C-alpha cells in the first residue's frame, strides 16, 4: 500500500471475535522473552537498514510489543495505531512523508516523537489467516516505497513469526487437552459469562462513574475516583462486584481496565476544555493486579497521556497491596517507571494486608487511602481511632498525603479533621455519579461542596 491514507475503520464484531480467539489460542500475550523473535526483528532491521523494528501482538485494547530492535517500546494503546491500518487494509501498509500530516492523532503521535519519516508494516497471521499482530520497520530517513521483492522479504519474516506461533499453539493445545473435559463441567451456569463480558466491551456498555475526593477543611473537590459500572441494556446498572471477579478470571480485566484508563484520560481532557481551572483536578483509576504486573504498563500510560494531551499530574493510579506483594521486583520496576512519568501513585485499602508496613517505605507512593473499614469503626472505641491516627502519622513521616475512604457520618468527618487527615471521600459528600452529574458539581463556586454539618439532622 503506497502512501497509505491514515483512515482507520471499525472492525467487524464477528471477525474481531474470531481474531481474538485465535490470539488466545497461541498464549502469546504477556509471555516471557524468546530469542527466536528477537532474531527476527534484528534481521528485519538489518536487512532493510532500518533504525528500528518491532513485532507486536494485539488484543482488544492494546499492542504488546513482543520484540523490538533499536527504539524500545513495550506497550501502546491499540486505538488509531499502525495495527489498525494493517487490519483495515488486510495486508501490508507502507507509509512515507507523513511527519507533517494533520491527520496524525492518538498513538500515531509516537511516530513524531521518534522522528519517523517512513514505516512499513505487514500482518502476522495465524495459520487460519487471522491477523494477530504486525511486524514493522521504521526509518528516520524518507524513502518512497519498498520494491516487491523487499516487501516479500518482510512478509517472509512475518511468516517465520507465524510458524513460531503455530508451534506455540500446538504445544499449548497438547498441554491443555487433558484438562478440557473437567474444565467444561465447571463452566458457569449463572449470568454473566465471559461471552457476556466480551459483548459488553465490544458494544461499549461499560461506563465510568466518579466519586469526588475533597479537602476536608474546605470541602473543595480536589480530585475524583473513577469507578466502573456496567450499563446493561436489559438488567440496568450493574455494580463492579458482580462482574469484576469474572473479568479477572477470564483475562478480560486487561482490556476492560485499559478502556477505563483511556476513558478517564478523555474525561479529564473534556473537563479541562470546559474550564482551564480544572487542570488542578486529579482523576484516580484503580489498577487490577494483572494490569499492574505488565512491565509495559508505563509505555501504555505514556501513550494515553500523549493521545489525550493531559498532564501526568492529572492522572492517579490506585493499586492494592495484593497487587504488589506477589512480585516485589516487578512492582518496584513498574512503580519506578510510572513515577518517572509524573503520575500520582496511591495505595488503596491501606491497612487491610499483612505486609503494608514491611514494604511501604520501599514503594514510591504519593498517597495512602485509609480503608473504609477503619473509618466506619472510628466511633466504636479507642482502638479503631488509634489505628486511623497511626496511619495518618505514618503518612506524615513518610511525606505522603492521606485520603480517608467511606466517610458517611458527620462524626467521622469531625474526627478525621481533628486527627489531621487532609482529604476524604464518601457518601457524606457525594455518592459516585455520572460524568454529567459531576460536571454540574464542578461548576459550583470554587468547586466547594455544601457543608454536611449544616444539615446534620438530615444527613447524620
Please provide a brief summary of the model.
By secondary structure, this protein is an alpha/beta fold. Helices cover 42% and strands 20% of the residues.
Structural features, described:
- The protein is of the alpha/beta class and 460 residues long.
- Helices cover 42% and strands 20% of the residues.
- Strands 7-8-10-11-12-13-14-15 form an eight-stranded mixed β-barrel, surrounded by four helices. A six-stranded antiparallel sheet has the order 3-2-1-6-5-4, sandwiched between helices.
- The longest helix is centred in the middle third of the chain and has 30 residues, at 148-177.
- The protein is elongated.
**Proportion of helical residues:** 40-55%
Radius of gyration equals: 24 Å
The average pLDDT value, as a whole number, equals 86
- End-to-end Cα distance, whole Å, is 67 Å
Beta-strand segment tally: 15
Give the class from helix and strand content and strand pairing: alpha/beta
Q: What portion of the residues fall into strands of 2 or more residues?
A: 15-25%
Main β-sheet, in a few words?
A: 8 strands, mixed, barrel
Shape: elongated
Number of helical regions: 18
Main-sheet strand order equals 7-8-10-11-12-13-14-15
Runs with pLDDT <50, length 5+? 1-8, 180-189
Amino acid at each position: 500500500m503506497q502512501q497509505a491514507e491514515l483512515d482507520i475503520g471499525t472492525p467487524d464484531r464477528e471477525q474481531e471475535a474470531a481474531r481474538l480467539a485465535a490470539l488466545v489460542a497461541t498464549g502469546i500475550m504477556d509471555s516471557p522473552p524468546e530469542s527466536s523473535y528477537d532474531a527476527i526483528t534484528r534481521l528485519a532491521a538489518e536487512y532493510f537498514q532500518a533504525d528500528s523494528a518491532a513485532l507486536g501482538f494485539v488484543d482488544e485494547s492494546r499492542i504488546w510489543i513482543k520484540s523490538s530492535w533499536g527504539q524500545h517500546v513495550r506497550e501502546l494503546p491499540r486505538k488509531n495505531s499502525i495495527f489498525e491500518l494493517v487490519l483495515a487494509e488486510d495486508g501490508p501498509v507502507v507509509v512515507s512523508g507523513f511527519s507533517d500530516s494533520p491527520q496524525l492523532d492518538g498513538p500515531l503521535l509516537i511516530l513524531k516523537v521518534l522522528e519517523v519519516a517512513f514505516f512499513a508494516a505487514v500482518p502476522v497471521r495465524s495459520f487460519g489467516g487471522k491477523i494477530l499482530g504486525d511486524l514493522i520497520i521504521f526509518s528516520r530517513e524518507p524513502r518512497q516505497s519498498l520494491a516487491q521483492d523487499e516487501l516479500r522479504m518482510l512478509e517472509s519474516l512475518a511468516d517465520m513469526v507465524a510458524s513460531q506461533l503455530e508451534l506455540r499453539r500446538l504445544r499449548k493445545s497438547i498441554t491443555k487437552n487433558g484438562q478440557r473435559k473437567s474444565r467444561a463441567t465447571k463452566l458457569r451456569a449463572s449470568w454473566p459469562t465471559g461471552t457476556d463480558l466480551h459483548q459488553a466491551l465490544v458494544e461499549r456498555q461499560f461506563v465510568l462513574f466518579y466519586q469526588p475526593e475533597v479537602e476536608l477543611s474546605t470541602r473543595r473537590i480536589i480530585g475524583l475516583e473513577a469507578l466502573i459500572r456496567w450499563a446493561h441494556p436489559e438488567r440496568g446498572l450493574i455494580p463492579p462486584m458482580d462482574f469484576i471477579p469474572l473479568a479477572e478470571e477470564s483475562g478480560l480485566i486487561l482490556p476492560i481496565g485499559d478502556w477505563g484508563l483511556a476513558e478517564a484520560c478523555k474525561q479529564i481532557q473534556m473537563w479541562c476544555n470546559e474550564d482551564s481551572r480544572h487542570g488542578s483536578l486529579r482523576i484516580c483509576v484503580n489498577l487490577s493486579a494483572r494490569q499492574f504486573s505488565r512491565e509495559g504498563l508505563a509505555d501504555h500510560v505514556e501513550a494515553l497521556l500523549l493521545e489525550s494531551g493531559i498532564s501526568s499530574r492529572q492522572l492517579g493510579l490506585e493499586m492494592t497491596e495484593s497487587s504488589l506483594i506477589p512480585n516485589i521486583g516487578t512492582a518496584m520496576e513498574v512503580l519506578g517507571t510510572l513515577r518517572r512519568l509524573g503520575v500520582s501513585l496511591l495505595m488503596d485499602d491501606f491497612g487491610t494486608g499483612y505486609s503494608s508496613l514491611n514494604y511501604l517505605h520501599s514503594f514510591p507512593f504519593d498517597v495512602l487511602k485509609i480503608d473504609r473499614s477503619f473509618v466506619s469503626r472510628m466511633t466504636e472505641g479507642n482502638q479503631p481511632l488509634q489505628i486511623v491516627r497511626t496511619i495518618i502519622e505514618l503518612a506524615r513521616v513518610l511525606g505522603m498525603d492521606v485520603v480517608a475512604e467511606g466517610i458517611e457520618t458527620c462524626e467521622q468527618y469531625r474526627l478525621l479533621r481533628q486527627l489531621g487527615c487532609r482529604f476524604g471521600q464518601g457518601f457524606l459528600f457525594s455518592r459516585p455519579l455520572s460524568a454529567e452529574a459531576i460536571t454540574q458539581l464542578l461548576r459550583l463556586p470554587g468547586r466547594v461542596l455544601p457543608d454536611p454539618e449544616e444539615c446534620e439532622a438530615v444527613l447524620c
